[in-house]
Design goal:
Layout lengths: L1 H10 L10 H7 L2 E6 L2 E7 H6 L4 H8 L37 H5 L4 E5 L2 E4 L3 H6 L11 H4 L3 H8 L4 E4 L2 E4 H7 L13 E11 L4 H7 L3 E12 L15 H8 L7 E6 L2 E3 L7 H5 L1 E4 L13 H11 L4 H14 L16 H12 L6 E4 L8 H7 L1
Parallel strand pairs: 11-12
Antiparallel strand pairs: 1-2, 2-4, 3-4, 5-6, 7-8, 7-9, 9-10
Length: 380
């Protein structure tokens, strides 16, 4: 960001930033236009638009920004982005709490707010008079007293899951299903002990013979334990070894040294792991294209683990519908193929597949980096 700033200042270069990251836009841009459904909802000086938004959609986006304060549920925008803008009216009307009949039937007027700050909204006075609904602007005392499980339940409204002859609650299965976390005597669910991974950097056999083997240590003696019902984060700059370590945990790569254990049992790579061990671990890759067959439809992609687990066609269909709704894609996306989806939509397909069998642990490698703020908040 600093280099882009200097580029613009020192060379008189104009920069157009296309992004769903409001914080990045706020740091680098002089002006910003907020788009929805192919139309500009709000436009003006970045500081004014980000800090004092006027349009309901812009307000929603700003409220969806994720911070380190976990004492309240993440704010989201209800509904989902339509496949195409309506023939008439405001494209945001179907998701707007202030929408009237005129909003749905007529193109909203563009209102000049202040100077070059404009908003496309016919109910601007009503929006301004309304009370803030963002949880961050209300009392969070009760939320701060909740346990992580209670917070998760408050943030997530799950449906039921048909798994063979057993119907389980997705909420209970993914939030309460591992209550053994309170048992100090239970072994960690997932554990790495002294895990090291080295890669041979020699260009050829001749080079190795002349100069000896040249290795790169991507992961160096890492120890980590993940308990039941616990969320652990691994952070670091690009090239720090995060993704390599994730592949070691999931068995996609074999450690040069060290051990990977699941419930205290030593596990190898994916070839050596049994069916239950494979089913118990879900993976979402940083680049979803790494795990999605370009020839498969969305339905076929999500169905892969269900087919392997022996689910019936009817149960697969029910579960796929639930998952598509959960990740905000909708049933209309089921027949599409990867090339017809955006990067963010592909990531949501990957997430849906990773949690299809309610795994006991899910490894997320940058799970929401390609998603817009509202979708990020909903998925988290």
């Amino acid at each position: 960001i600093e280099r882009l700033r200097r580029l613009a200042t020192n060379t008189d270069t104009a920069i157009l930033v296309i992004s769903h990251d409001i914080d990045v836009v706020a740091k680098i841009c002089d002006r910003v236009a907020v788009m929805y459904g192919g139309q500009v909802m709000e436009c003006g000086p970045t500081d004014r638009v980000v800090n004092s938004p006027e349009h309901p959609y812009t307000k929603g986006l700003v409220d969806c920004r994720i911070t380190a304060d976990s004492s309240y549920p993440l704010s989201t925008i209800s509904g989902s982005v339509p496949d195409q803008s309506p023939d008439a009216g405001c494209p945001f009307a179907s998701r707007c709490e202030y929408a009237t009949t005129d909003c749905r039937e007529s193109i909203p007027p563009t209102v000049a707010v202040d100077g070059d700050h404009s908003v496309s909204c016919g109910e601007l006075d009503t929006v301004r008079e309304s009370e803030p609904t963002n949880p961050r602007q209300t009392d969070t005392e009760s939320a701060s007293q909740q346990s992580p499980t209670q917070k998760a339940r408050a943030c997530y409204d799950g449906g039921s899951v048909q798994n063979g002859s057993t119907v389980s609650s997705l909420t209970d299965g993914m939030i309460n299903g591992a209550t053994a976390a309170d048992d100090d005597t239970a072994p960690p669910l997932f554990e790495a002990r002294g895990v090291t991974k080295q890669f041979d950097c020699s260009n050829s056999v001749v080079e190795r013979w002349l100069n000896g083997s040249q290795t790169l240590t991507a992961v160096d003696g890492v120890d980590i334990a993940v308990g039941r019902n616990e969320t652990v984060g691994i952070v670091g700059e690009s090239g720090s070894g995060k993704s390599t370590f994730a592949k070691l945990l999931t068995g996609l790569q074999t450690p040069t040294d060290g051990k990977i254990l699941f419930e205290g049992d030593l596990v190898g790579d994916v070839v050596a792991r049994d069916t239950e061990q494979l089913r118990d671990v879900g993976v979402v890759f940083q680049n979803p294209k790494d795990s999605i067959n370009p020839r498969f439809t969305v339905r076929e992609t999500i169905a892969e683990p269900l087919v392997e687990a022996g689910w019936s066609q009817s149960d697969q269909s029910t579960r796929i519908t639930q998952l598509l709704d959960l990740v905000e894609l909708g049933a209309q996306s089921a027949s599409r193929r990867p090339h017809q989806l955006s990067g963010g939509q592909l990531q949501r397909v990957a997430i849906a597949r990773a949690i299809a069998l309610e795994p006991r642990v899910v490894v997320f490698d940058e799970p929401v980096s390609a998603l817009d703020l509202s979708t990020q908040a909903k998925l988290l």
